Amino acid sequence: MSAPMHTRSTHSATGSVEVRLPWWAIALPAIAFAALLLLIVGSEDTSVATADPAIGRLFERIAALVSG
After folding, report:
1. Which stretches of 1-68 are assigned E, i.e. beta strand?
2. DSSP code of 11?
3. Half-sphere exposure (CA, 13 Å, Cβ side) for 23?
4. Which of 25, 31, 58, 60 is the S-S candidate for 21 at Cβ 3.0 to 4.6 Å?
5. What is the rounded CA–CA span in Å between residue 21 and residue 40?
6. Distance from CA of residue 56 to its chain's centroid?
């Protein structure tokens, strides 16, 4: 009886690995980071509205949505 012979794979070993992530694997951490950043910026006492009124209104709306 002879032992089965193992053949080598035809894939080239270039050292690169292809990884495919689902869309939410990138989107969810990015959204969480943005939400935490907005909470940190919104909780500071400095007035963002003096730099640009539109940004101040945006932060006020986001704070209103988060708070209730």
Report:
1. none
2. S
3. 0
4. 25
5. 29
6. 24
Helix (H) or strand (E) holding 31: helix 24-43
Residue pLDDT, tens place only, 6-62: 666 665 566 778 888 898 898 999 999 988 888 877 766 555 445 667 777 887 888
In this predicted structure, what is the pLDDT of residue 39?
Answer: 82
Quote the CA–CA distance of 25 and 43 in Å, as a whole number.
28
- The owner of tokens 């992530």 is 21
The pLDDT assigned to 32 comes to 92
DSSP structure class, residue 51:
T
Which of 26, 27, 56 has the alpha carbon at shortest distance from 41? 56
Residue carrying structure tokens 């980071």: 33
Phi-psi region of 60 (alpha: psi -120 to 50; beta: other; left: phi over 0): alpha
